[in-house]
Structures are given as C-alpha cells and as structure tokens.
Amino acid sequence: MSKTWVTSVVARNIAWQNSGVQIGPGQRAVLTAKGTWGVIDPAHRPWCDASGNGVMGTGDIRARAMEGALLCMTADGNIYAFPAGCVMTLPSIPGPLKFVANDYTQTGAGYTDNQGALIVEIQILNDIQPLTETSPIHDVADVITEAISTEFRATSGPSS
Ligand SMILES: [Ca+2]
C-alpha cells in the first residue's frame, strides 16, 4: 500500500526546501526525480538531471556529491544525493523531507545563477519492504550529518 506526492525543487533557492511530505513511523520513501536544471554555470554548460553533472564537488560545495545533484535531507540530518537513474529509496526515518541543489556556496555565482526546477515524486510505502536503501553522504560541515550512533545494551535473561 502506498501513496505518492509530487513536489518541485527550485535550483535557485539556497535554503532547504521543505516538501511538506513526512515519513511516518514504519513508513519508507521512494523518490523519483524528473527533469533537468542549470546549477553549475548554466549559461555556459549543459543542464543536468538530479544525479548531477558527473563531477564530484570539492571545496565550498554544499555536500560531497556530484555538482548539480539534487540533495535530500531526512529528519535525522543525513543528506542523500540522487544516484544515476534519479531514483532512490530512503531508510525509515520519520519526519519531513527537504531538498536543495548541490551548488557552491561561495565560489563564483553560487545559487544566484541557477535556473529551472526538478520535479520529485515521493512515494510513501506503508509497509517496510526489502528494498535497497541509499547510503547517506556527509555534508561538508559534518555538523548535522553525523550518523546517529545506536546504543546497544546487553540484556541478561532471567536466571534459572
Ligand atoms: Ca550556480
């Protein structure tokens, strides 16, 4: 059982754009991005899809992912970059999904020269299914994207 929402992500917006879609407990999201946009020097270079332009960003780029890729942030602060094919399945992290283009924040024109928008279909699955999840990448700042550590506690059974 599933339900699908459609949202758009504007290339020029430097702030994370809240899709308004939430992953609920026990739910999982499959994201499909469509279209192309101009993020990296769009006046002189070809536009790219959500998987970016094939060049790994370095320096003051927003996240260590392909230039121009569409980034998604889950409620735990982890950031995911769309892979080739522009479809990915997120882990079951309850909370809102936010999106932004992967661009340089201080180099060149940054977000001010960006053009276009991508369409994202967000399919929420109510049942956890054995799908391959996308691994998060980490933001340059590494402040809010540290993986949440899970505390394991040894439990002892009743003595007999
Ligand atoms: Ca730009």
Strand and helix map with partners:
Elements: E1 2-10, E2 17-23, E3 28-34, E4 70-73, E5 79-81, E6 87-89, E7 95-101, E8 117-125
Residues 39-40, 103, 109-111, 113-114 line the site of calcium ion.
The whole-angstrom Rg is: 17 Å
SSE topology string = EEEEEEEE
Q: Strand pairing plus helix content: what structural class?
A: mainly beta
Task: Indicate the CATH architecture.
Answer: Sandwich
Could you say which small molecules are bound to this protein?
calcium ion
Please work out how many helical segments DSSP would assign.
Answer: 0
Output mean pLDDT.
85
Helicity level: under 10%
The fraction of residues assigned to DSSP E strands is: 25-35%
Assigned CATH class: Mainly Beta
Report on the structure:
The protein is mostly beta strands and 160 residues long. It has a single domain (2-125), classed as Galactose-binding lectin (Jelly Rolls, Sandwich). Helices cover 0% and strands 31% of the residues. It contains no helices and eight strands. The protein has strands at 2-10, 17-23, 28-34, 70-73, 79-81, 87-89, 95-101, 117-125. The strands form two sheets. A four-stranded antiparallel sheet has the order 1-8-3-6, with no helix packed on it. Strands 2-7-4-5 form a four-stranded antiparallel sheet, with no helix packed on it. The N and C termini lie far apart (45 Å). The model is unreliable at 140-160 (pLDDT under 50). The chain binds calcium ion.
